[in-house]
TrEMBL record:
Keyword Iron-sulfur set for record: no
Transmembrane segments: none
CDD domains, per the entry: lyz_i
Protein name per Swiss-Prot or TrEMBL: lysozyme
Disulphide connectivity of cysteines: 32-117, 37-43, 48-58, 71-99, 89-95
Reactions catalysed, as given in the entry: Hydrolysis of (1->4)-beta-linkages between N-acetylmuramic acid and N-acetyl-D-glucosamine residues in a peptidoglycan and between N-acetyl-D-glucosamine residues in chitodextrins
Signal sequence residues: 1-19
One of the record's GO molecular function terms: lysozyme activity
Native source species: Caenorhabditis auriculariae
Keyword Nucleotide-binding: no
Lineage: Eukaryota, Metazoa, Ecdysozoa, Nematoda, Chromadorea
EC number: 3.2.1.17
Entry-linked InterPro entries: Invert_lysozyme
Keywords assigned: Antimicrobial, Bacteriolytic enzyme, Disulfide bond, Glycosidase, Hydrolase, Signal
C-alpha cells in the first residue's frame, strides 16, 4: 500500500512541477529537428566547428556551451566538469535534441508570428533573440528546404 501511494505522489508532483515551469513540450519525432540536425552536422555526432557568431559548437546540432547552460545542463552529474558534460550531451542525439527543445520552449515568446519550426531553428541558431536577428534567416532557409511542407506542422503542444 505504501509504495503505491508513494508512486502516485511522485507522479502527481512530477505533473504539477512540469506545469509550474510553464514550458511547452516539444514532440519527440520532428521533421524539423531532423532537418536541423542535417543542416548542422549532416547528423554526425562527432566534431566541433566555429559558427558565424564565433561560437564553438559540437555534436549533432553543433551545440555550444552557452546553449548547454541555458537548457539547464541536461545529463550533467555532480562529478562532471561543465565542458565534458557539454561535449557528452552534444554528441548524444537525445540529450542535445532535448536541449534544443528546451531552448525553443523557453524563448518562443520572442518569435511571435513564426511557425514552430522557424521558431526552433532561429532560436537554436541565434539564441534567445534569434527570431529578431537577420543572420538566422539563412539557417532557417536551409532547415526549411530540408524538411519541406512538414516544417509547417505544429511542434509545441501544451500539457496541463
Amino acid at each position: 500500500m505504501r509504495s503505491s501511494v508513494s508512486c502516485w505522489l511522485v507522479l502527481a508532483l512530477a505533473h504539477w512541477s512540469a506545469a509550474l515551469l510553464m514550458f511547452d513540450r516539444v514532440q519527440t519525432e520532428s521533421a524539423c529537428l531532423m532537418a536541423m540536425c542535417e543542416a548542422d552536422s549532416g547528423c554526425v555526432p562527432i566534431g566541433c566547428s566555429i559558427d558565424h557568431f564565433d561560437r564553438i559548437g559540437c555534436g549533432y546540432f553543433r551545440l555550444n556551451i552557452y546553449q548547454f547552460r541555458q537548457c539547464y545542463q541536461p545529463g550533467m552529474k555532480d562529478v562532471d566538469d561543465e565542458e565534458s558534460a557539454w561535449i557528452r550531451c552534444a554528441e548524444d542525439y537525445e540529450c542535445s535534441s532535448q536541449c534544443i527543445k528546451t531552448l525553443g520552449s523557453r524563448f518562443r515568446v520572442k518569435c511571435y508570428g513564426k511557425n514552430d519550426c522557424e521558431t526552433l531553428a532561429r532560436i537554436h541558431d541565434g539564441g534567445a533573440n534569434g527570431c529578431r536577428d537577420r543572420k538566422t534567416i539563412g539557417y532557417w532557409k536551409r532547415v526549411r528546404d530540408n524538411c519541406g511542407p512538414e516544417c509547417n506542422l505544429p511542434i509545441f503542444t501544451r500539457h496541463f
